[in-house]
Design brief:
Elements (H helix, E strand, L loop, with lengths): L6 E3 L1 H18 L14 H7 L1 H26 L3 E3 H15 L2 H9 L4 H27 L6 H5 L1 H26 L14 H9 L2
Helix pairs in contact: 1-3, 1-4, 3-5, 3-6, 4-6, 5-6, 6-8, 8-9
Length: about 200
């Protein structure tokens, strides 16, 4: 007897994924609740003394939000979810749920190559898992409609995912070599959309 591969609709996994991301993005900001007012009682001093913490938490919050947008873009074009895609999504959610750990490490310690490398490397892992999900969805029969895969928007999404992962990997290498200010190179992500659009038109 041939057993058909297990496949499910995407609604439940989308709802579950949204819940995990919402919890992770909330936990990320909890360290701010432990901040104490400085001796001079000024809010401006509170912000200046904790500028690195605010900056790191804000950056991580924005990046998780962008990953969530990418996740929604992917699953909006998916008809069904098979077991490999489900496990890839669970791995992605595990990495998202642990994002507060590298964020806390980078905001509480000096910017050494190990500290910044771990932080950027963790984001590269999340992006790579997203790219693997998209790669599997594009090639596995029935998960995405062929016309969606072959459309300009579909090709643009594929190139965007590859480029985003590539930028994270490049910044990861930079972080290992020159950790001070390495995260500024994440602004290279601003060039991803126009490049992906141009590649998709070829």
């Amino acid at each position: 007897m041939i057993i058909a591969p297990e496949r499910h609709g995407s609604d439940r996994i989308i709802a579950f994924s949204d819940a995990v991301v919402a919890i992770a993005i909330t936990i990320l900001l909890l360290p701010l609740a432990d901040l104490e007012m400085p001796a001079d009682g000024k809010v401006t001093t509170l912000f200046t003394e904790n500028a690195a913490k605010f900056g790191g938490l804000t950056l991580s919050w924005v990046i998780i939000a962008l990953f969530w947008f990418g996740h929604h873009r992917l699953f909006d074009s998916i008809n069904i979810v098979d077991r490999p895609l489900m496990w890839l999504d669970f791995a992605w959610l595990f990495a998202i749920a642990l994002m507060p750990l590298p964020t806390n490490i980078v905001t509480e310690n000096d910017s050494t190559s190990q500290v910044v490398g771990f932080y950027v490397g963790w984001m590269a892992l999340i992006s790579l898992l997203m790219t693997l999900m998209l790669w599997h969805a594009r090639r596995a029969p029935g998960i995405m409609d062929p016309e969606v895969v072959d459309s300009q928007a579909g090709r643009e999404g594929w190139y965007r995912s590859l480029l985003i992962t590539g930028v994270f990997l490049i910044v990861f290498v930079i972080a290992l070599l020159m950790p001070q200010g390495a995260t500024w190179f994440l602004l290279l992500q601003l060039a991803v959309d126009p490049i992906a659009a141009r590649l998709a038109r070829r």
